[in-house]
């Protein structure tokens, strides 16, 4: 336990150890939930974060981007009733997932803190919530999860896409850490902790997709 480092942003634990350090940042390992996280002293300002996100080229009509999103939407839609109501959390400026789900017969609300910051969406109840390449950016994933789980109906689905931590050796050369907006890194063990904490059944798909079924 290090008194000079932040509490774990997922579970709030003080029990952690230094996992890795590169020329730019430190990465700490929570011994309770297994999250790897970057201390808040390294966080970018909201304006600088948005500058980074504005560089992303995610067109709603890009076939490659749509195929990539389909890796999440296909297993999710197999589990949804027709005409389900969902939220795309962290949709970005080009909400291609919204279009894909609409084509499959589902209605999707949109939220993004930088592009569509409409907090009224959190007063709704949803059959499903998606978060594609979002959770690695979250400064307080524990608080976000509480909010999203509260918005899900019993039997609803939270679908997360984020690349998982494999081991310490792979972490040292991992391209995911080179993005300064990536501050939280999850392993399958972390997903199992989340499922237990929020009373969900967990399904893992295609290495980087976690489906949480709320009981």
Give the helices and strands, then pairings.
Layout: E1 16-21, E2 26-30, E3 36-37, H1 46-53, H2 63-77, E4 85-89, H3 96-103, E5 107-111, E6 126-132, H4 141-151, E7 152-161, H5 168-172, E8 184-185, H6 188-197, E9 200-205, E10 209-214
Parallel strand pairs: 4-5, 4-6, 6-7
Antiparallel strand pairs: 1-2, 2-3, 3-8, 7-10, 9-10
Helix pairs in contact: 2-3
Give an overview in words.
By secondary structure, this protein is α/β, with parallel strands linked by helices. It has helices spanning 46-53, 63-77, 96-103, 141-151, 168-172, 188-197, and strands at residues 16-21, 26-30, 36-37, 85-89, 107-111, 126-132, 152-161, 184-185, 200-205, 209-214. It has one domain (16-214): Rossmann fold, CATH 3.40.50.150. The chain has six helices and ten strands. α2 packs across α3 (96-103). The protein has a six-stranded mixed sheet with strand order 5-4-6-7-10-9, sandwiched between helices. Strands 1-2-3-8 form a four-stranded antiparallel sheet.
Run of helices and strands: EEEHHEHEEHEHEHEE
Multimerization status: single chain
- Report the end-to-end length measured between terminal Cα atoms: 34 Å
At CATH level 2, the architecture is: 3-Layer(aba) Sandwich
Strand order of the main beta sheet, please?
A: 5-4-6-7-10-9
As for the number of domains, it is: 1
The average pLDDT is: 95
Low-pLDDT residue intervals, each spanning 5 or more residues = none
- Rg over C-alpha atoms, rounded to the nearest angstrom: 17 Å
| CATH homologous superfamily grouping | Vaccinia Virus protein VP39
Number of H- or I-type helical stretches:
6
Q: How much strand content do the residues show?
A: 25-35%
| Range of helix content | 25-40%
By CATH reckoning, the class would read Alpha Beta
Give the CA-based shape: globular
| CATH fold label | Rossmann fold
């Amino acid at each position: 336990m290090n008194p000079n480092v932040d509490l774990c942003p997922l579970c709030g634990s003080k029990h952690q150890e230094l996992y890795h350090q590169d020329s730019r940042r430190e990465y700490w390992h929570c011994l309770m939930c297994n999250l790897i996280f970057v201390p808040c002293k390294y966080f970018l300002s909201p304006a600088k974060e948005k500058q980074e996100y504005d560089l992303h080229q995610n067109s709603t009509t890009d076939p490659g981007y749509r195929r990539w999103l389909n890796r999440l939407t296909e297993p999710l839609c197999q589990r949804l009733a027709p005409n389900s109501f969902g939220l795309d959390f962290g949709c970005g400026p080009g909400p291609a997932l919204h279009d894909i789900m609409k084509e499959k017969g589902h209605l999707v609300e949109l939220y993004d803190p930088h592009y569509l910051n409409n907090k009224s969406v959190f007063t709704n109840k949803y059959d499903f919530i998606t978060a594609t390449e979002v959770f690695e950016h979250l400064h307080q994933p524990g608080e976000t999860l509480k909010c999203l789980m509260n918005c899900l109906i019993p039997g609803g689905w939270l679908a997360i896409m984020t690349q998982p931590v494999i081991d310490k050796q792979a972490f040292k050369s991992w391209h995911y850490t080179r993005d300064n907006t990536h501050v939280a890194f999850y392993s399958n063990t972390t997903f199992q902790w989340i499922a237990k904490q929020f009373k969900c059944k967990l399904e893992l798909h295609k290495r980087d997709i976690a489906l949480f079924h709320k009981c």
